[in-house]
Each structure stands twice: as C-alpha cells, then as structure tokens.
Amino acid sequence: MREDSDKTSFYRYPPTPTWAVKRFFFTMKFYLIAGEASGDLQGAALVKALRSADPNAELRCWGGELMAEAGAEVVKHYRELAFMGFVEVVKNLPAIIRNFKQAKKDILSFKPDCLILIDYPGFNLRMATWAKKHGIRIFYYISPQLWAWHTSRVKIIKDCVERMFVIFPFEVDFYKKHGVEVSYIGHPLAAVIAQHTATQDFFSRNGLERNRPIIALLPGSRRQEVERMLATMLEVVPRFAEYQFIVAGAPSLGTDFYKPFLLKGPPVNLVTAQTYDLLAHAHAALVTSGTATLETALFMVPQVVCYKAGSSSYRLARMLVNKDLKFISIVNLIAGKEVVRELIQDDFKLANAVSALAEILMGPRRNAMLAEYQAIGEQLGELNGADLAANEILDCLKSP
C-alpha cells in the first residue's frame, strides 16, 4: 500500500497518546508548512513560541532560514515552492505534484501530533484536505485571503481545520458570516516590528551616504514578481537625484539575480536580509503588494503600492476576485479606505510611479498617510500573536 495514496479509505493516521501522556513520556511533534518569505517570517515567530511553551518539542517544517534559526528542521525551502500566477503554476505543475508527494510522505513518516499550515493557500488547502482524510489534526496560522477571492474555499477550512488563527479584525466577521469560529491573535508583525532596533552601522556597512534620504524599493521575494516589478521601479531613480535608492533583496534569490537589473541605470545599492533596517531608515518606499506593505506602514514609511502580474494570470484573477473588494493592499483593507496609492497592472508605469512618489515625499499627503498608519498600528495592537496561538494549539491538543 502506498503511504501517500489519497484513494486508500481504510488507512488512518495512527492514534497518538493523549497530550498529558505525551508531555510526560514522549516528545511532542509539530509539522509546519510555509511557502513564502512572509510565511517563513511569521512561522519563525510561531516556532519560537512553541519551543518556549514546550522546550522538548520536535519541529519539522517547509520554510526558510528564519524558521531554521528559530529551531525547526527545514525539509524544503520556500524558494522551491514560490510559483506565482496561473500560467506559472501550470508550467511548473510537475514540480508542484512532486512537492505534494514529498510532503505527504514526509508527514506520514514524521508522525506529528498536528500539522500547522501557514497561509500559502494553493498548496496548504489541498494539504488540509489530504491530512483530514488521514486523521491528522490541523491548525491554520495566518488565514489565506479567502475574503479576497475563492471565497468558496471557506468550506475546506470549516471541514478540515480544527482552529484557524486570524490576524486582521475584519477576518473575524468574514468567518463568522460563513459559520466558522476563529481566534483573533492580532498581527504578529505589530509586536515584531515594535521590538525591532535598527543596527547603528547600517549606513557604513552598506556603503551608504548618511546625510542623503533613502527611498526603499521592495520588489517582492519571488523571482517572477521581481522580474515584473523591479525594472519599472528602477526607472524612477533618475527623477529623484537628491535621494539614494536601495533595493531590498530577497535572500532566497541571491545577489547575482539582481545584477542585470542594477547595471542598466544610475547606481543603486542592494541590501539583502536587511529589509527591517532599511525600512527603519527610509524616507519613502515603492512596495510590491503583499505583507511588505503592512511592514512598511508599521515602520511609518510613506509608500506607493505597486503590482503587476502576467496578463493571463491577471485576467483570471479579475474573474475570481471578490467583486466587493475595493483594494488589494493590506493597509487599505484594514483602514477600509484609500490610505496608500495603488498602482495595479496597467497603472503601474513610470509616469504614475513618479507622481505618486512625489506626493508622499513631503506635504499634506505624507502627513495624512502617517496619521492613518498610527491608527492602523493601534487597531492591530501589540498582542504577541505567536504566543497566543502556540498556547491555544497546546490546549487543543490536551483533548483527544
């Protein structure tokens, strides 16, 4: 009998001892799956919290350097999973199928007390369906954006997930409307960023001019999105000669990946694995839509949100997206209004980027944005969401 077969109805994940017995006689085992850089960051906080709550726990994961540093054994790096858009998914379907098979086999071999899924819905919702069939207890940390598109997938959460942990206040109402009770834990980034202290040698370490204001360019962490975003971002540089532009590089892509982009125009610095230090010193930013928009807001850096997908992927997304959704950036969604300018698809071009950036370098638009950022930070609070989630997971595991 094949261990990873979804067609075997009589195979069930072996029953494990009760939580209390496990805590006394055995080691608790957790399997986590994160498929992106943002998931690695948030997963690292959860790994630390689980280790704090249960120092003897074994944690095995799909993630990245941050989860490894936090104390989990990384089986698969997220850079091997980050396929962006419908067309890219189809092109890489054989690799995705292999990843599913590897994950299923590894989970069954590891025999975790629970599976913890972190965002990354295309992969993780399928894993939830499979794991439920095999009797594995499932927790979901950081909800996928089901309120934005593919809302019908809420049924998978309702049927398969023991507890969903959400990080935005509006997600509580969304799930309640669909008959799912969730735990609001606050956004983990609020606490992480509140505790961040910028390194004093950031300028000297990276060869930067201390007296020249910085505009940060955050083109994303996945190869496809950086290829679409960075060239246009860099076209803006000559229009703002009094500023120094710095690209936030994704560690998973390597510095050589960025060199062809950076050689085409005026000198621009690249910093890798220093995004928070960069934002701590930045005057403004151009940011690819995603978690980075919220990070930028919590660092109180005025920004322009940018996004461009492949034409086929974008047309498909337009058909699938919730028609009531007015914005795509997390900042605007939390505020329920336009706080930051969004340059999406055809609107993301040089002239628009230049005018939108100029608006926030000084003056009333900049001041209004900073005031809204303050309100968003207060709304998210400084709850230690990772600790709350870890303790609730362990409490749930007390029950068979």
Which class best fits the helix and strand makeup? Answer: alpha/beta
CATH class of the largest domain: Alpha Beta
* Mean pLDDT value: 88
* Named CATH topology of the largest domain: Rossmann fold
Largest sheet report: 7 strands, parallel
Low-confidence segments:
1-12
* Principal-axes shape call: globular
Q: Give me the CATH architecture of the largest domain, please.
A: 3-Layer(aba) Sandwich
| Termini separation | 27 Å
State the CATH superfamily name of the largest domain: Glycogen Phosphorylase B
Percent of sequence in beta strands: 15-25%
Task: Summarize the amount of helix as a percent range.
Answer: 40-55%
Radius of gyration equals: 22 Å
Counting DSSP E segments of at least 2 residues, the number of strands comes to 13
Number of alpha- plus pi-helical segments: 19
Total separate domains: 2
**Largest sheet, order of strands side by side?**
3-2-1-4-5-6-7
